[in-house]
Fold:
Amino acid sequence: MTGKTWNNLRADLNAFFVWCEKPPRKWIVNNPVRDVEKFEVPQGIPEILSAEKVKALFAFLETYRGNPRKPLEPGCLVPYFALATFAGLRPAINGGEITRIAKLKNQERIIDLQAGVIRITPALAKTRDVRQIMIQPCLRAWLTRYPIARFPIIPPNASNLLVQVRRRFAIGHDALRHEFVSMHVAKFRSMGDTALQAGNSEAIIKKHYLNLVSPEEANVFWQIMPGHEWQQSASSSRANDDSRCGPSIAGG
Structure:
């Protein structure tokens, strides 16, 4: 277990026990996590995925059904990963922006496909600030193909399913958010706009994300669209064409 993973787990447990301490609950007197060691984690180059790996991830997600014994609909995790990857929403299952949105009854007011914007309110944001994220064409395509009204942002047994997918593709906790920030500033070349949409400062964008990927790589990233259904249709069409052509060729 890395120091960062330890710190993330410690933070989750600490938040739970702080909640247990507060009135009217007062279920515990002392928070057992408060004195647990927290590691110093050096700030290196943010972990990101190549555009090709993101393509592979979403191709897998379009067919992924979770636990084979209790399978969900194919694409069950697409909205979660699309919002983390193409909108940079903070992905933590416990208290992350994605989870907070998933708990709302009026999710369409936050993720507004008609207006083309995701509205992060202070109640949703880690920083308690207001921000708006523009819905890029690729994100619109994914959320149209896999609408959150049909595919919940946080499906049943999400924690275990996410662990499986993250392990399969070696995706760290914040890698997809890093992906969004890096690809956004590479494509649109505005540290100010990227900072506003990501909920960071321009100084952070410049220090950690500027020129982390090339504009060409970013162009590929922002063109990743749903493809499984089209690919199936195209393959079926080609197979039908071959079957129709077979007898006539043989007969000729």
User: Anything to note?
Assistant: The chain has two domains: 1-42, 45-229. Strands lie at 111-112, 117-120, 131-134. The two ends are 66 Å apart (CA to CA).
